């Protein structure tokens, strides 16, 4: 196994990809309210700013900014995945030791305003990229709708014409 080292920047902004163990599963969207509750609970206990979020059936992308002196995004993800997994296991009647989420996650420390914009685009365009919808506005599990209300994106942004977003898991 490679010796992977995470980057921890106090008050940093990070892009994340979190995936389910079974990439054929739809647990993230099927149990979207359970996921939202897990995020809400962790957010209340350990504040953070959710800059962007998009949940697909088998994986999600997020951009978070941590409080000024805080670096512990790993602990937050651990708790979100634990709360979500325990609830799904109980609702599905699975063995208590079943694995719902992959143990690890992918993160990237945002390095500039352009990097932030690129990753925002990547997060919001992901349902189109994976063929779930033809336009970003048609995917319900995304902060794109909030970003439209805030004037960050026009409502018609992100149809099939967007092809080269320089961000994501590279």
Concise synopsis of the structure shown:
This protein has 170 residues and is of the alpha+beta class. It has five helices and four strands, in the order E-H-H-E-E-H-E-H-H.
What are the main properties of this structure?
about 170 residues, alpha+beta, Alpha-Beta Plaits, 4-stranded antiparallel β-sheet, 5 helices, 4 strands, about 15% strand, globular, Transposase_17_sf
Q: How would you describe the overall organization of this protein?
A:
GO terms for molecular function: sequence-specific DNA binding; transposase activity. With 170 residues, the chain is an alpha+beta fold. It has one domain (13-150): Transposase IS200-like (Alpha-Beta Plaits, 2-Layer Sandwich), CATH 3.30.70. The chain contains 5 helices and 4 strands. It has a 4-stranded antiparallel β-sheet with strand order 2-3-1-4, with helices on one face. It starts with 12 loop residues before the first strand and ends in a 21-residue tail after the last helix. The model has no long low-confidence stretch (mean pLDDT 92).
Ordered list of secondary-structure elements with their pairings:
Layout: E1 13-19, H1 27-30, H2 32-45, E2 49-55, E3 59-65, H3 73-92, E4 106-109, H4 113-129, H5 144-149
Antiparallel strand pairs: 1-3, 1-4, 2-3
């Amino acid at each position: 196994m490679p010796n992977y080292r995470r980057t921890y920047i106090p008050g940093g902004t990070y892009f994340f990809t979190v995936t389910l163990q079974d990439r054929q599963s739809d647990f993230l969207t099927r149990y979207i309210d359970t996921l939202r509750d897990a995020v809400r609970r962790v957010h209340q206990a350990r504040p953070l700013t959710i800059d962007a979020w998009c949940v697909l059936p088998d994986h999600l992308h997020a951009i978070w900014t941590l409080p000024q002196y805080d670096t512990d995004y790993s602990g937050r993800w651990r708790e979100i995945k634990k709360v979500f997994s325990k609830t799904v296991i109980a609702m599905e009647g699975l063995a208590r030791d079943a694995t719902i989420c992959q143990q690890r996650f992918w993160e990237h420390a945002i390095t500039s305003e352009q990097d932030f914009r690129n990753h925002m685009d990547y997060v919001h365009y992901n349902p189109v990229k994976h063929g779930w919808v033809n336009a970003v506005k048609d995917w319900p599990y995304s902060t794109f709708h909030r970003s439209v209300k805030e004037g960050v994106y026009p409502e018609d942004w992100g149809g099939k014409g967007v092809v080269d977003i320089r961000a994501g898991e590279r």
